[in-house]
Design goal:
The chain is of the alpha/beta class. The chain is 38% helix and 15% strand.
Length: 305
């Protein structure tokens, strides 16, 4: 029996993995029967990569051979097996190591995230993301982003906002109620108190475990290069940055790079770090970032009524 225990599992909808713009248009404008015919007629036509494709391809590349497979990607699709055949054909032609899938024929696929122990569900459908988060399931909506072609880059870089993503939104609630000065007073008073976990902390922990495996490989083989780098990009500045440090210490986690920006536009540093995916709870930050890199909106907490 194949076990997913102790693996980093990511669940992905076909809308996040591939560019389904044309197919979605047919479904919206002409209905299900036309959509079904459209997909059957193009079953052997390979779909173009979507927003999450570069991230997932690199994540899967961290798997070794044999039993050395710490990463698993599961397809969760609103298609049925018939209309989803084109997706699996495209997965095969792109060389993605994805074997497992759930097809729900229009039913919400996020219900199966916990069945596989996934620490993230990615989709282009905002309704599915909001429902998943409401049920405590880690999820994010991929935003439309320009195609990325950096196949010569072997690395995998992931960036997270802090409040409302890795941590809960307790500090954001203070900010919205009491303004910047009230936020600063509260953060100074609680500078050494960690925040409670946010919706994607489980993913963050699993990535840290994966990075530890990468470092163990490098220690055993000096020629091996650790490819995974993790960053935090937050609007916090000093002294509010101390709350981030206190939380990471409490969680027993660390990052490779941290950007405490004090309100400076995040896309400035993210354009240099060049993450293959960036998670933020506020569209005001995620949308500008999506103009230059793959970005994911995590509509959690008070910032997303």
């Amino acid at each position: 029996m194949y076990s997913l225990q102790d693996k980093l599992v990511v669940a992905v909808a076909s809308s996040a993995l591939f560019d389904l713009t044309e197919s979605d248009r047919v479904f919206r404008e002409q209905g299900e029967d036309a959509y079904r015919a459209h997909q059957r007629e193009r079953e052997d036509q390979v779909l173009a990569p979507g927003v999450a494709f570069p991230f997932l391809r690199r994540l899967l590349s961290l798997n070794g051979t044999g039993d050395d497979r710490p990463v698993e990607v599961i397809l969760l699709s609103r298609n049925d097996p018939d209309t989803g055949s084109r997706v699996f054909h495209s997965i095969e032609k792109h060389g993605l190591d994805i074997e497992r899938a759930v097809f729900t024929k229009g039913a919400p696929p996020w219900r199966y995230v916990e069945s596989f122990g996934a620490s993230l569900f990615l989709t282009a459908h905002p309704g599915d993301v909001r429902e998943a988060l409401r049920m405590g399931i880690p999820a994010g909506q991929v935003l439309s982003s320009p195609a990325q072609d950096d196949r010569d880059d072997p690395g995998l870089r992931i960036a997270f906002d802090f409040d409302g993503v890795l941590a809960d939104d307790a500090s954001e609630i203070v900010y919205q109620k009491e303004g910047l000065e009230g936020f600063r007073r509260e953060e100074e008073k609680k500078r050494n108190l960690p925040l409670d976990p946010g919706p994607l902390l489980r993913l963050f922990r699993d990535l840290g475990r994966l990075q530890a495996l990468e470092r163990a490989r490098a220690k055993a083989d000096p020629a091996y290069v650790v490819r995974l780098r993790i960053a935090i990009a937050t609007a916090r500045g000093a002294p509010a940055h101390q709350r981030v440090v206190a939380s990471l210490r409490e969680w027993g986690l660390s990052v490779d790079e941290a950007f405490f920006l004090g309100g400076v536009e995040k896309s400035r540093v993210l354009g240099t770090f060049r993450p293959h995916i960036f998670f933020d709870d506020q569209l005001a930050h995620a949308t500008p970032a999506s103009h230059v890199l793959p970005a994911v909106h995590v509509p959690f907490g008070v910032a997303n009524p």
